Fold each of these.
Amino acid sequence: MLRIGVIGLGTMGQIHLANLSSRPDEVQVVAVFDPDKDTVDSVVGETGIRQCGDAAELIFAEDVDAVLIASPAVQHWDQITFCLKAGKYVFCEKPLVTDAASLSEIQSVMRTGAAQRIWVGFMRRRDLAFCGLKADVDSGAIGRVVFSEMSHRNPFVPDSFTDEDYMLETFIHECDVVQWMLSDSISLVQVDAVAQEKEGAQRHDPQFITMTTATGSIVRLTGHISNGYGYDIRCEVVGEKGSRNLDDSLWAGERAGAADSLVSGHWSERFAQAYRDVIFSWIDDVVEGKHTGAGLHDGLRASQVAWALIEAIKHPGIPVPVAH
Ligand code: ISE
């Protein structure tokens, strides 16, 4: 039986908790921590799961074999280092790290076996539609990929959401999925002319981004995170022999208004299968002593692209290199 502790019981933590709890024969969630006591009470009140006083208490608890981190992004890397000190396996939500202050520390962990104990929650790698696109790229069916067109649309985000959050919390998915799907590295990014969303807002929306990979493939990405009507993720990969779109029939959704693709109300619906499978594969990996998911290296590579995007939005129209 794998004994797991969960840090953070916001939307994401609760989704992971539900998925973990659906495998009672192999997994037992033994402890949780969230600073919001009311949330903890309402989520695990009658379950018998222990409520810890802080993250360190949970991480160093003797009856916790593996830790799932779904805390605010800025806490991720510190909590991961605690897990490594405690010798625990850790699954951390994206982004792995929010700024470059810990870069050399991450690079030294990367040179050790401890890196194998870290998984990063890039669940799109388990989404059947994205897996289908990757299979077509890998098989050579569409030839060398010349460019890709991607969209990331959300119905709403909190008013406090900033341009930095846009890059680190939202586009971080594309930063990872592009490099994974194309087996390539993003080397240059550019944000084109952007308009402030509304008077006084801390963010620009929509955003128009161009990313160039090391092999010269181009990705055009449009973000629109307060469209007001639905969550809509699109991707078309265009190669020298043909093109492919995400197969929307692989998940259940609704058509919104005149939109020509399926939309869902929320990312948790659109990616329900991926969120489940990324957790199930983590459990399988830990139990079977392997690592088939996104790891420390992938988490850092995606954050490095997001950091370049944060720089690029300050200088619209100017290409910014990614420091890998
Ligand atoms: C959210 O935080 C997520 O993780 C979703 O996967 C993403 O698509 C969404 O835009 C984010 O706000």
Amino acid sequence: MKTKIITKTNLPEAVHALQQGEVVAFPTETVYGLGAIATSQEAVLKVFAAKGRPSDNPLIVHVSDVDTVKNSVENFPKEAQLLADAFWPGPLTMILQAKPGIYAPALSAGLSTVSFRMPDHELTLEMIREVGIPLVGPSANRSTKPSPTKVSHVLEDMDGRIFGIVEGGDTRVGVESTVIDLTNDGGPVILRPGVITKEQIESVIGPIATQQTIATGEKVTPKSPGMKYRHYAPTTPVIALGDDISRWKEWIEQYHHENKKVGMMATEKMIAGVQSSIEAVYSLGNTIEDMNHHLFDALRTLDHAQVDVILAQTTTDQKAGLAYMNRLKKAASTVVK
Ligand code: TXA
Ligand code: MG
């Protein structure tokens, strides 16, 4: 199958293919998603196959209106309404108790819940409206690879595996949505951090827990199946380093001493401070928004730069920094404090 690049003018082609049960990647504000109609078991299974995704990891249903969500759940709690009013369309996914028999069983991966999100991307919202059925949309990378923020990333992983890719430019946010579980007995809980922060959510629905604080007996069990898998990992080893310039210099010197080529992904400030002759440098910009925006492209770019190791700058795990650190820790083989 030759994967087509579909532009805004050819959107009807994507709509038609989706209605026929084909897989079409689409842009969102976070990362590109791998779309298929959420009501067709056959179409949803194609998504799992194209990604190489384990069948016990559920998919998010992408909607263009809130009523679709209300009609497909057992219970639409007041928190869901408040959060939808505050953050949709936008990078927040809500897990709710599903009404049985509406969506393809494969997308829930054996759970009784379904997660929903309304992406903040006009072209994709229009496409969902035209298709007339919500779309599943896992990140459009092959399983374990960094999520795609550009059409070229999707092509790299999916060329020949899917019908097409809707061209929507580079994604704005760069890391996937915040996932909140509204079905938890102990109250809402964040299962995956994103750029919509715990503080922002609390300002709308009051105090909540993050997954790490929910202890079940001795150990913390991952409620979101996706959390247990290897993630975001380039082939080249990634070492996450703090913002101490002299530490960076030591690590670079040591690798050079071993005749190893070094790739560096760091802020403008760090790059200016290190001033060594590094084989490949990727600037993450200046702010935490820049760092989230560039993270996955940096990992992919440096993975192609023929270096032996990638040194990646860490940041604080507060607010939107938590989203960045959550991904970087999964991509990295070592995190140096
Ligand atoms: O920003 C995003 O959320 C992107 C864009 C394309 O919308 N999508 C995305 O999907 O990141 P995916 O499949 O790569 O990540 C979804 C995460 C997984 O960790 C999955 O395990 C979890 O959400 N998840 C989905 N449905 C769930 C459910 N019903 N219960 C618990 N976790 C769920
Ligand atoms: Mg993903």
